[in-house]
Write a structure and sequence with these properties.
heterotrimer; A: 2 domains; 70% helix; flat; B: mainly alpha; MetI-like fold; Extracellular solute-binding protein (chain C); Bact_solute-bd_prot1 (chain C); SBP (chain C); signal (chain C); transport (chain C)
């Protein structure tokens, strides 16, 4: 890594520096991990009520009862996972594709109305969803009449302003000369997008993919609003069914939360090499 | 001379408009339907007394009420305090972590990134349970056990207006940096190695490289995180809702929570829409300032 | 180079999967088209013939642990009773169903029935979105219900829904601790107690070890909005059973209100209740009760006895599944204290099935079908099973009959105490909806936030009383409040 000095071969100094860094990172990691640890640990408890939760660092008893309870609680447990997977995957792919395209247009093509259009897009982010929720619900349910379908779950987040903004910001650091020279060679914008921009934007695309997937996977309220049968619910909506009248089935809820986190781990680790390696302009130029 | 250059540009850029519109077509359609339409609706509602069976226009009443409301002012103040305490810390912390990850071995980098990212994957409800335990007001609470080591009496973290805002801020400090860290790391990796090489030849120190290469190169990313962070913070709702309900004595009432209450507790949608638009205007002004100061050098 | 092709193939694969998935979602649409797209209030379908087909939708929370599991059975039973009618039940959790309902109501497309609290009627009525069931209820249906709970679902001449149960919020004590503290709990169960007696009792229930309190006399869940329950229960027994007096003056500006606020502070200052009470939630105080950290806890419901018994059994089994550090507990139903000279009035909560209308005016047939569905859910075996499960007494004759032979294993003393509490439940008092919604606003914006500050010891009872008074006078005028 070029940012850090090699300390001219002074190994001792380098080790000290790395040691300090690692200690800091570990401490921060500990604080970050604690809630997760608690979630996973308590998922191995008995399926008991919330008032009965004993907060302790170590589990009193390890059992897989809660996982069994989760899958036996409803015949739809698997279906919920599947629904979430479908919705999150489609939203992820559509966001990566369309936000990359739009981000490129907004960052690198000088077209009429660019500034205004982008400002308008961004302005929408500033309106809290509490007030747009009812009009959106009217649109989906009363006008389009598509409640309780995958379309209703997917369409409103087909491409988010957040992702367009993210893509635009990342792409703005791609040097213009590369694009200019491609144009001189006669490449169309479409070709530039696929052969130059996309390979150079692998990192941001991977970032967008994981963030969008995670966000969609974790969304609770919208799927809860527009679904009205168990078989169309997503895992987050289904999980909420564990909360009962005056009690909460605590461990199974945590088991559910753990189960619902697993796909995101998988996605993270399968995509991580894209944001580990980085993409250098030089590689493409040469 | 200048003319020929711009001519060449024009020739090269012919057809760009069409391409650009094609690239943003889907985004714009989706936006128009699912974002602009509800927003325009909300705008109209803000001049109405909303009733599902037929609203009536009441002019600027909703806006007048918003500006007259003491509580709205207090909520804005709380939100500003919360934003000032959380957003800069979040930026600095995630930037520092991203930098510190860099010199490590690859497997270590992945591990740390995964760890910091983890809280984002856990469901909010599960996390709020843990935080309630951390903030447990009795001696057995985690934070209280921690401070008792220093001989400090147990605190009523969420229940006292002295500590409630701090508790929410503290909670934000220790969670939800995963996204920013990942975005920063991605941006750091995008910096061309040749810059560092050139700097090394000049004998630049770590801090010089930081100041002259890293910070300028990460400006677009910082701008992005700052703008979205401020927007998110101004709309923050869930933590206050789950942890304190805005109390005690409105010490943690945020605008997002107030709008939620207005819309759903009192069913005053018109008023909620007006509050939202005022809030959006405030955020818009702040974002505009941020773009003015940070957006300049974004274009290369 | 190799990496590049790999990336391209990933993109390709992802794109293919979009195609596959969107095709899949298309199938999903078609498969669900029939049940979900049939509008609930379909006038053309129900107006043609008397037995025309109709669908009634209901948004229902998990009223009891097995309630939602019985949905399919309930729908099938209903269909057997009325072959032309379909009951379509949407499940929702307690926390979230209000928001879903509110969104649907504001969008003009609510479900036909929703299980909500009777107080929420005041929230939806001004919008004109409730449906009057009165013309469609037969005399047999009406006479099946007890009068008091039925009244909670009525406003003026309109009967907006049918009650499922009437629950009394009380408090619960640990029998052994009560006896150790010298409290004659049987007498209290039968005759109630005054605030002074209560204050002495919980004071003597405190057990200290040096400076630290090992056991409190009384812990009520008062974190966040739950604090409303605490104050709500207390003011009932202080001569203010309703937020408005009979001549519609706002009641909480009465000096009696100040007495209650002072009592709240006294209990904490005595050391009978933890000074951190303002952030103790429902789960925490139940844990404190089971682990012997408090003698009395609140709020209490009759069904808590079963919860305590369950833990006792787990303790006996000694398999590590009981609450950590818990002790065997005999749960005793206790009334809330009443204040000097005032009659004991219980805090009653009525939940039930409230009928909604959509943007289109519902036809008489559809309204009648909704009434049938509401009655089906609120009476007979459905109500019997559910109320037994949560240990609440029945409020319809048909449910009482249906529950014969069903096992209710509650302690007889507790059952007697619950009966006394039920008899002290006040009848519904009609409050004009504009006054009602202003009162709710004062409660949310002034009373609850100030109460939390009072519990945390940041303001005095007098300060809070002044603040409430000021807000009330600002809203209702000096003539609109009790002086």
């Amino acid at each position: 890594m070029g940012l850090f000095n090699k300390h001219l071969g002074n190994r001792g100094l380098r080790y000290t520096r790395n040691a300090i860094i690692v200690v800091f990172l570990l401490l921060f990691a500990l604080a970050t991990l604690f809630p997760i640890y608690f979630m996973i640990m308590s998922s191995f408890g008995d399926p008991i009520e919330a008032g009965a939760v004993s907060y302790s660092i170590w589990p009193g008893k390890i059992s897989l009862e809660s996982y069994k309870f989760f899958f036996e609680f409803s015949e739809y447990s698997y279906r919920w996972l599947w629904n979430s997977l479908v919705v999150a995957s489609v939203v992820m792919v559509s966001n990566v594709v369309f936000a990359t395209m739009a981000g490129y247009a907004f960052s690198k093509i000088r077209f009429k109305g660019r500034g205004i259009l982008f400002a308008v897009l961004l302005a929408a982010m500033m309106i809290p969803y509490q007030v747009t929720q009812v009009p959106l619900y009217i649109l989906i349910v009363n006008i389009f009449e598509i409640q309780n379908t995958y379309s209703a779950l997917i369409l409103p987040s087909i491409v988010t302003v957040y992702n367009i903004f993210l893509a635009k910001q990342f792409m703005s650091s791609i040097p213009n000369e590369i694009l200019e020279s491609a144009k001189v060679e006669g490449a169309s914008q479409g070709k530039i997008l696929f052969t130059i921009i996309m390979p150079l934007s692998k990192t941001v695309m991977a970032v967008m993919a994981i963030l969008t997937f995670m966000d969609t996977w974790n969304t609770f309220f919208w799927p809860f609003l527009v679904t009205n049968t168990m078989d169309m619910q997503t895992i987050q909506v289904g999980l909420k069914n564990f909360r009962f009248a005056n009690t909460t089935y605590f461990a199974p809820m945590m088991a559910g939360a753990t189960i619902s986190a697993v796909p995101m781990f998988i996605l993270f680790f399968s995509l991580q090499r894209y944001f580990l390696e980085g993409v250098t302009v030089g590689a493409v130029k040469g | 001379m200048a003319r020929t250059a711009s001519n060449t540009r024009n020739r090269l850029n012919r057809g760009d408009n069409a391409w650009a519109y094609a690239f943003i077509a889907v985004a714009l359609c989706g936006y128009a339907l699912f974002t602009a339409y509800p927003v325009i609706n909300a705008f109209i509602i803000s001049f109405q007394e909303y009733k599902p069976l037929g609203s009536t226009f009441n002019g600027l009443d909703n806006y007048a009420d918003t500006f007259k409301s003491e509580l709205f002012g207090k909520a804005i103040w709380n939100t500003v305090v919360y934003t000032l305490l959380t957003v800069p810390v979040a930026l600095i912390l995630s930037f520092a972590v991203a930098i510190m990850i860099m010199p490590l071995k690859k497997w270590a980098q992945t591990t740390f990134k995964a760890i910091y990212y983890l809280p984002a994957v856990a469901s909010g409800v599960a996390l709020s349970v843990v935080w309630l335990w951390i903030f447990d007001p009795l001696q057995g609470g985690i934070l209280n056990q921690l401070i008792s080591v220093f001989g400090i009496e147990n605190q009523n973290w969420l229940g006292s207006s002295k500590t409630s805002m701090f508790s929410l801020v503290f909670m934000s400090w220790l969670s939800s940096h995963g996204t920013s860290i990942i975005i920063y790391v991605a941006a750091l990796l995008g910096i061309d190695e040749s810059y560092y090489e050139a700097a090394d030849i000049d004998g630049a120190s770590f801090w010089q490289k930081m100041w002259h290469i890293v910070i300028p190169c990460l400006k677009p990313t910082t701008l992005f995180l700052l703008v979205t962070g401020v927007i998110g913070s101004f709309q923050v709702f869930q933590n206050a809702y789950l942890m304190t309900g805005g109390g005690p004595d409105h010490s943690t009432t945020m605008v997002g929570l107030l709008i939620f209450d207005t819309a759903f507790k009192y069913f005053e949608f018109g008023a909620a829409a007006a509050q939202s638009l005022v809030l959006a205007l405030i955020i818009g002004i702040i974002a505009f300032i941020q773009f003015k100061f940070l957006g300049k050098d974004v274009e290369y | 180079m190799k990496r590049k092709t790999k990336f391209a193939s990933t993109v390709l694969a992802l794109m293919l999967s979009v195609g596959a998935l969107s095709a899949c979602s298309g199938n999903g649409n078609n498969g669900n088209a029939d049940p979900s797209n049939a509008p609930s209030s379909n006038p053309s379908a129900s107006s043609e013939a008397p037995a025309a087909k109709d669908t009634i939708t209901a948004l229902l929370p998990p009223v009891s642990a097995n309630y939602q599991a019985n949905f399919e059975q309930m729908a099938a039973d209903f269909n057997k009773l009325y072959p032309n009618l379909t009951l379509k039940i949407e499940p929702a959790s307690w926390e979230d169903m209000t928001q879903k309902l509110d969104t649907q109501v504001n969008a003009g497309s609510p479900p036909d029935l929703a299980f909500i609290n009777s107080e929420s009627v005041a929230k939806y009525e001004p919008l004109g979105m409730l449906m009057d069931l009165k013309p469609h209820l037969t005399p047999e249906m009406v006479s099946d219900f007890d009068e008091v709970p039925l009244g909670y679902m009525a406003r003026g001449d309109a009967q907006y829904g049918l009650p499922a149960y009437l629950a009394v919020h009380s408090i619960g004590g640990n029998k052994q601790f009560l006896e150790e503290a010298g409290v004659d709990w049987k007498k209290v169960q039968q005759e109630g107690w005054t605030y002074d007696e209560f204050r002495e009792a919980i004071k003597s229930g405190v057990v200290k070890e040096g400076d630290t309190t090992k056991r409190y006399g009384f812990v009520f869940a008062t974190s966040g909005v739950a604090s409303k329950d605490y104050l709500g229960i207390l003011v009932k027994g202080a001569g203010m059973p309703y937020p408005f007096t009979e001549d519609l003056k706002y009641a909480y500006t009465d000096q009696k209100y100040l007495t209650v606020l002072q009592a709240i502070r006294q209990i904490i200052d005595d050391g009978s209740m933890p000074k951190e009470a303002s952030s103790i939630d429902a789960g925490k105080r139940w844990n404190m009760f089971l682990t012997g950290q408090t003698m009395i806890t609140g709020k209490g419901l009759a069904g808590f006895e079963n919860s305590a018994k369950l833990n006792n059994e787990k303790l006996k089994a000694n398999d590590g599944s009981a609450v950590a550090d818990s002790i065997p507990v005999d749960y005793v139903v206790l009334p809330m204290p009443s204040f000097a000279g005032e009659p004991a009035v219980s805090h009653a909560v009525v939940d039930g099935y409230v009928a909604f209308r959509g943007k289109k005016e519902p036809t008489a047939e559809h309204a009648a079908n909704v009434a049938k569905a509401a009655y089906f859910l609120a009476s007979g075996s459905v109500a019997a099973t559910t109320n037994n499960e949560i240990a609440l007494s029945h409020i319809t004759e048909s449910a009482r009959k249906a529950s014969e032979g069903m096992e209710v294993a509650l302690d007889p003393d507790n059952q007697a105490a619950s009966a006394v509490l039920l008899s002290q439940a006040p009848a519904m008092r009609e409050i004009p909806s504009d006054l009602g919604s202003e009162a709710i606003k004062i409660e949310n914006e002034v009373i609850i936030p100030k109460l939390q500050a009072l519990l945390a010891g940041e303001i005095t009872p007098e300060q809070m009383f002044e603040d409430v008074k000021k807000a009330a006078v600002d809203t209702f005028g000096a003539d609109g409040v009790v002086q």
